[in-house]
Amino acid sequence: MKIAIGADHAGVELKDHLADMLRRQGHEIADQGTHGTDSVDYPDFAAKVARSVASGEVERGVLVCGTGLGVAIAANKVDGVRAATCNDLFTAEMCRAHNDANVLTLGARVVGIGVAEEIVRIFVATDFEGGRHERRRDKIHALES
Ligand code: RB5
Questions:
Q1: If the chain, 145 residues long, is cut into consecutive pieces of 10 residues, what is the mean pLDDT of each piece?
Q2: How far apart are CA 28 and CA 24, in angstroms?
Q3: Which of 68, 70, 90, 105 stands the most exposed, by the fewest C-beta atoms within 10 Å?
Q4: Global pTM value
């Protein structure tokens, strides 16, 4: 799967770790920064990943900041993006199965590396259930216009 990944300074270490993990699993990763620990503004990186997903250039996105919240709020401003903050395994599964989330956001100051790895694995592996959830997803997108 083609996956775009991005982070701010608070999330860069976890982002780099998850990018390596996904590459080892055979995914094609578009790393959209940041690439160091200098302080940056998370909306800039959320926008890059969100636009890659919205344009269809990649299938999914992963964003990391301190809490996972700022990048989610920013990414959800881009039409076509359904970003979900998941700092536990249940919501990682549900955001795909019920909400068809196309961007996962994580808080590097909230979850440890092991939990983050498992959240990403579930996010990538879980299919959207469709059916009644498709109608609801479509109503979310109707709010965009
Ligand atoms: C940066 O200090 C922090 O505010 C940011 O990473 C994120 O948690 C915002 O939502």
A1: 98 98 98 98 98 98 98 98 97 98 98 98 98 97 91
A2: 10
A3: 90
A4: 0.98
